[in-house]
Amino acid sequence: MPEGFRGRPVFDGNKCVGCGGCANNCPARSILIFDVCQELRILQYVGGRCTYCGRCAEVCPEKAITMSREFETSTNDIGDAQQRMELFMSTCQRCGRCFKDESALEKLKLTGYRFDDLQNQRWIFGAGAYQENQPAVKDIFIEMDW
Amino acid sequence: MIARERLNQLKDKFGSAILRADLPSDRQLFVWVQPEAVKELCRHIFRDLDARYVISIGADDRPFSGKFIVAHDFAFDTDHVLCSLLAQLPGDEPKIESISGVVPAANWAEREMRDLVGIESVGHPYPKRLVLPDGWPEDVHPLRKDVPWNHVPPEFKEGASFEFEKTPEGCTVVPFGPFHPTLDEPAHFRLYVEGEMVRGCEYRGFMAHRGIEKLAESVMSYNDIPVLAERICGICGCVHSVAYTQAVEAAAALRPPPRAEYIRTILLEMERLHSHLLWVGLACHIVGFDTLFMQAFRIREPVMWMAEKITGNRKTYGLCVVGGVRWDITPELKAELNQTLNKLQAEWEPLVGAVSRDKNIQKRTRGVGVADRNVVKNAGAVGPVARAAGVDIDCRRDHPYAAYDRVDFRVITATGCDVWSRVVVRMKEVFESIAIIRQCLEKMEPGPLQLEIKDELPVGRIGLSSVEAPRGESHHFVITGENNRPRRWRVRAPTYQNLQAVPAMIRDQQIADMTISLGSIDPCFSCTDRMETIELRSGERKTWPQKELLALSQGKK
Amino acid sequence: MLKELCQKMFGRSLWVYHANSGGCNGCDIEVLNALTPYYDAERFGIRLVGSPRHADVMLCQGPGMRATARALRAAYEAMPAPKLVFAIGSCACGGGMWFDSYSVLGPVEKVVPVNYYILGCPPRPEAIIYGVAVALGLMEKKAAPVEFKQTELPIPRYHPEDLRRQGDLVIYEKAEKV
Q1: CATH number of C2-135
Q2: Which CATH number, 3.30.70.3270, 3.40.50.2300, 1.10.15.40, 1.10.760.10, labels domain A9-89?
Q3: pLDDT confidence of A97, banded at 50, 70, 90?
Q4: What is the 3-state secondary structure (H, E, C) of B498-514?
Q5: What pTM, to 2 d.p., does this model score?
Q6: To the nearest whole angstrom, how far is the Cα of C131 from the nearest Cα of chain B?
């Protein structure tokens, strides 16, 4: 079994940011995205018509998709090949865009009372930062075309 | 230089009819002419200048210029020029004079234009439906821009069946297909038979027509289409993806990095290897020599394994993107590939010897399925079919692409014009392919694999590309477009033209030879788009179950 | 139940009829490869036959096309019961890349009922043999749907306009649950 063998793609929900790049580039239109509301995005991979081309894995910015080496995928139910992710797209409180909410550890950053800075060592989170108009950590830089 | 000379020749003769000419490079020539002069120009190019007919294409350009475009592609093989004659037709009534009278090979292309785009070829000898399924309404043309790709016309009749021509006096009809064990794909041939001898045939195919060209124009993007193109055919997948990519690169004037070109060449030749090995095995199976079938498949497996190691899949390589390739050949893979090739060569030579000395195979294949130079020219046949008739054409040498201008190889021809010559040509080409791969591996320099394409590709440019598939020349025609996808993409597979040579090949042969004659063109119906025999004298219709036909072919002494 | 039926009826050897309804033939060649010396399916007793009337299993390849739908259905009905249908390749299983094209009906299951799906494009000969082994009950299937949820609903939904200051704290006035 060679190393580069393109078997079944495996979607890692922990790394996915829900950008939709894979869905836009899938030639078989096998990856579907549905936004339930502003915070919830469902990403579904329909395994039935995947052609194992590997473009989704190539374009994913977070490398959340890996082409595994599994090829023993026959089943008697076509729904067995499906992979579904429900992603929480939390809204950045400053600019209103979606960004990813990572693991449970990182969730702690967004709750409770934290007022960092400590003489510009940075790391501010919390609602207070929004009120005081201070920049939060993990600023998102957006390229503007003037 | 030569393209300009040809252009000047045409201008001297047809000055007023030529509206515009584009010479993007020394090897591609686009001549825009008045629709009325198309037939005469085609006749001149085909007969007087002795060019080879490639394909005719119809395109719906109404959203952009308000007109339809008809293109007739020809190839000047000795001058290394691909030429396209284009004409614009008014948007409300696309009619053009048919060139099938002067160029018999355009028969199918014009029928397809009519089915899919709605361009009428006035004066066509046999204007019958070719491509679309039976029951499809007459006035819905899928490749027009106003018809969506997933359109299901409400007038579609589910149970309609193909109307064959009225059978001549005193015939037996033996339906054959669409499912048949020797032909992997569904196709329907109807033969007119007198006793055991075949007198004529009719073909109903295109059951594998999946609407690929329409999908490419509607939902895919430039880099998705190579993945689509590889699945046009089960054996020449890489060829189609390389040909498409080259056509787009020609249209956009891009040149992929040299390492990418070498890798493309290597994988193309590997594809040729496993295709020819498969064909020799299949041909032996058809004439009843099953041992060689198993042996040929056994020898071919290591090639598939190597392809899997390099690209990740045994057959659908996913190799090309516009401007380069996706996979690399590391030094370990190179060493392994060399080893595989050595082993292959060592095992192939005794097999070639076995086939050459076998009197049975020679008796079954000599003098069978004869297609001489005239048939080849009139049908536009390409590949081993043409080379076995002594016509010295090979796209790798005549229209060099990828790295073929940097390697040495011989073009194998034979003069027998029959199935045996085709067997010989294919067997010898295997050795040439092995030599080409070895040279490429030596000459390959390290470097980038893909071009950095910074801007969007220019819109409205036309690109042609001819690639030598194992079966012949595969020609792609691309008009680049907006929204990151082409406006029109036409795929012409070699079997498209080779199949038009089949009626001449099987005339006055026995029924049992039909299968091997058909098999000798290495039909790839999925690239192209069944057999009924009609006994001329007694008027009976007989259904041959598939097993019987295969047994008939294998049992013939 | 189907598994026991298969094991009882088919014993150990299956006669297979190959029906290509308009695909690219990549899967077809992999099936042929499965019968050749390296992967040798014939050692399991699997034989390719030329007529649906002799077959136990129909291997369908290629999407269900308008042009061949009738012929495929006729071939299916010509097979004597008990019979199995395997859909090989992504074209037969889900329609492939052209599942919504104008001349394609969709996956093969729109024309004939399918018992087992063997995915791949094209599936390796080992995958095909594995699929047949799963069907025969010799092996267990390994595929299962995967679902990943990052948060459980209902989740609180905050709108920045609702922030109010209360002394040192900042609280949300309303919390909407979604």
Answers
A1: 3.40.50.12280
A2: 3.30.70.3270
A3: very low
A4: HHHCHHHHHCCCEHHHH
A5: 0.83
A6: 18
